[in-house]
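Appendix B. One record, verbatim.
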Amino acid sequence: MTTKQKNSIRVGKYVNTGHVDAVIREYKRTRWVPNSERIGKPDSLSAWLSTEDLEDFLAATKKYGGDGIKFYFSAYPADYAPNPEYAGRQTITLVATRSKNTGMGTVANKDIYITKHGQSTVLGFNNLAICPPICNSSSEGGMGDLGITILDKGANGMEIA
């Protein structure tokens, strides 16, 4: 009997504090400031989930034949009734995926759909603790120490982000 071995698909790597600080600082400068101005309040800078939630989602992903997860940048609608503090702010939405070789040497990561309550739905996870408004840090603005940036807002003064 011939056994087909599944190839590991690895795309990320561990990074150091300098890298994390640099990409957060660049995000704040190019995305966060305009987003915050557009929605009229500080946009979220992070999304947190527990190890237990992540492990549960990984287990569900594997249960349905998945081998990866897409992290979609997303935003709550301006009239988000389930949690008005989240309204308009960005978040991360996780979607379970399955790799498929396209035959041309490339791999497509297809979203996994499951049947729930008799209907087809994507295997997704959201409603993470976003910061702001939910921040668990005592530093300025409650947004942690990584990526601290002083923003010159011209006539509107300076802001620490």
